[in-house]
Amino acid sequence: MIMLNIYKILFVGVLTVLYIGSTGILWAKPVLRGGLDTTFYGASAENPGFTKSNFNGIFHQNAHAKIYDPEKNKGSFNVNTRISYQTYSFEGMDPLDVQLFYGYFEYQFTDNFGMRIGRLIDFQNLGLTYFDGASFEFKIPKANLDFHIYGGYILNDDYILKEAEISSLSSLDYRNMVLPQREGDYIEGVDVSYKLPKVAILNLEWQARQNNAAMAEHYLSADLETVTYLKILKTYAYGVFDLIDLMPAQTLEGFQISVTESLHLFLEHEYFRPVFLQDSYWSMFPPLANNEVRAKLLYLLSKYFSVEAGYGGIFYAPEKSEIGHSVFLSLIHNRLAGFKVRLDTEYITGPLDNRFRNMLLLTKDLKFLFLILGGGLEYYNVDEYHTGYKTAYFLSGGGEIRFSKKFDTTLLVEYYSNPRYVYNVKGLIKGRYRF
Fold this sequence. Notes:
- The chain is 8% helix and 61% strand.
- The protein is mainly beta.
- The protein has a 22-stranded antiparallel barrel.
- The two termini are 34 Å apart.
């Protein structure tokens, strides 16, 4: 019922904005810009008994548009929506899904003060947040300060990370994936950005989330990046502090050292701890924190050829006393027989799994076609005792065809041979049209 009322409010808002725009108050000469993205993703079923199908297919139709007046450039209406349908389903899951990612009216009162109202996306230090509400942004150019204030009611956004890879998620992403935002929670926050020309950029953000008038999540975050000092050293740092548990949720510190114009060293340390909602089932369990250190060396041998090598170590929570290691080597040539070639070799060992992986990727950019070819071989074991290695290999190919500046299409197919999984083939077809 709440969602239905929100859609009614947004629909009335759209009609109101269009009416005002048609009178010439906002848009004397309105312009419509946007696009349509049509995607079909298919794969042979990983678990036919669960999905009751030997083939899993997902169809997405995405549409986004912006209405504005280039001459006045004061107000605009922006919308992005998606309809999804999947060929498989199981109990409690609807195969048809309709999402309004954002739909908001934006108005710039002055060059330094603007407003957005409607369905918004906040993407600052604390990751993606979808909510129905308003945000205000104002700048103080002489002081190099930008302020961003927002608030509203959170949407259930468990679909945000539906297609993401778990290996790429941070602790705050895990919060969204394992514990989806609950529809009806209230969110408010303030983001401040300070730029010191030719020295550094500092970003601070405070955010609070309430559920049933009680504090559910409360954070303070900081993001710092410096410019390269004397063309040698660049530093960056990021941190999120949990104001409820009074503990860090995630931190990242890094250095980029340019030994010469061709030799660069990257050093990083990252700490992350899962964040559980205070009144959730998961808050009964103590969160285990991990530390990770990474080092990467980049050597530019020539204009087209470069080498990357590195090491990463994960130090799991002290309660587990376990360490994981990874070593990698990458060779990249941007012009080899007309192709861009990348060869990656990686060895991973630790309590979770052991694996040795080799991957080759070839890409070629033509006037109307972007071609992709790849393949790889992997030896791994993931059982409890790490006994014996199994072999897996994969092949991929496809490309992007550019019919014009407004229309292009993409086709990708991958074959994966792995004894752990049932599926072997998956593919993606996507068409994009811009207007």
